[in-house]
Structures are given as C-alpha cells and as structure tokens.
Amino acid sequence: MIDADGSQLGIMPTQDAMRRAEEQSLQLVEVNPKTTPPVCKILDYGKFKYETAKRERETKKNKKTQELKEVKFRPKTHDHDFDFKVKHARRFLEDNNKVRLLVQFRGREITHPETGRDVLNRVVKAVMDLATVIQMPSMEGNRMNMILAPKPRRDGGPAKPKPARPKLEAGADGKSDDKPTEGDDEDEDDLDDDLDDLDGDDDDDVDDDDDVDDDDDVDDDDDADDDDDDDDAAEAPAS
C-alpha cells in the first residue's frame, strides 16, 4: 500500500485502504496486479489516467517500425555506382532500418563467388560505423545475400530528422522573397531517377561479345568496299 505522498503504508485490509483514500478525497488504484499481494496506491484517478495515456502516446510516437531495405550490387559494380549505392545503404541505416545487401551474378560470374564476397566486404567497411552484420554472406540461387542491422544509438533516441530549408523573411512590400529555384524540380527528378537506379541492376557493364560483333561488322564493310573497287577496275576499257 502506497500513500498519496509516496510513503509506504505496508500491507493492510482493502476496506481500510479504501477508507483512507476516501478521507483524502482520492481513489485507491491497483498499480501492480502481478505481485502478491497486489500493490495499490492512493491517488487522483483522473490525473493518473491522463498521465498514463500521455506516456503511451509518447512511446508510440518515438517508436518507429523497422523495415528491411534492399540494395543491389553486381560483381563488377563501378566505383561511382558503388559509392552511390553505399550512400543509400547508409541513409537506410541512419533511419533505423535493416539493410539486405544483394550481389547479382550473371552467366559464368557464378563460378567466382569470391568476387561477390569482396563487394560485400567493401560495403561493410564503408558502413561499419553505423551497422553490424546479423547474417553472414550466403548464396541463394545466383544471388549472394548479407543482412546488416543499425547499431543502437548512444542517446537511445530516434534518428535525427533532416533539417528543413530555412524560409526567407518577407520584404518591405510584405511579400516573401523565398522563390522556387529552377534546381528544385531537377533535384526531385534526380531523386526519383536515383531510386529507380537503386532497385534496378547495373546496365553499365559492357559485354565483350558486343564489341567483337561490332568489329566484325566493320571488317565486312571494308571487304565489300574492296570488292567494289576491283569490279570497277575490271570494267574500265583499256586505253
């Protein structure tokens, strides 16, 4: 039994506890029903409900659902694309999301799985300040997977929100000088393109077979030109 001022009153009959609460124009509330005997406290029940609901709202507000994001790589991902994808992985981790790293193999690339592990190790080194490995690299068909989880923040709070762009103060005529710039629309388009590129595979790799085919086409054209020159020379009358 706990009094309204927080002092311990010890174990007492329920009727005596209720009478003591009525004398103070307060209520007897069971605050811990799991103990034997249960713990009760004399308090203002209306205020108690308000504070309890407020704590629940704050907890729900600060609690963010953790999602599993995915970032795809290729065994021969170029440095520019690699840095771009690592940037997205870091952003996901900063938002307190797990990240699945995926290396997609094509054709004979599957015979060299060590290239996929090398890519994953590079990513881990780039995000080791934010993440820990919770699933080591494993093969699933022609894909190699690894899962990272964000490290717990030292302050225990949610990820820092992105700073809002400051608004300019109104001018002398009362109108705001904050005008949209031409780069705003371009930035939004670039972001959409970046997200599309993130979900897709790298198409920048040049196949050696395509280069060979192009060379063959050039050789065939040269041969055809030579044959035409020979025919023209044969048809010309002797002087």
TrEMBL record:
Keyword Cytoplasm: yes
Biased composition (Acidic residues): 183-239
Translation initiation factor 3 C-terminal domain segment(s): 67-151
Keyword annotations from UniProtKB, A to Z: Cytoplasm, Initiation factor, Protein biosynthesis
SUPFAM superfamilies with a match to the protein in the record: Translation initiation factor IF3, C-terminal domain (SSF55200), Translation initiation factor IF3, N-terminal domain (SSF54364)
Any single GO BP term: ribosome disassembly
HAMAP family attached to this UniProt entry: IF_3
Subunit structure, interactors included: Monomer.
Protein name, UniProt field: Translation initiation factor IF-3
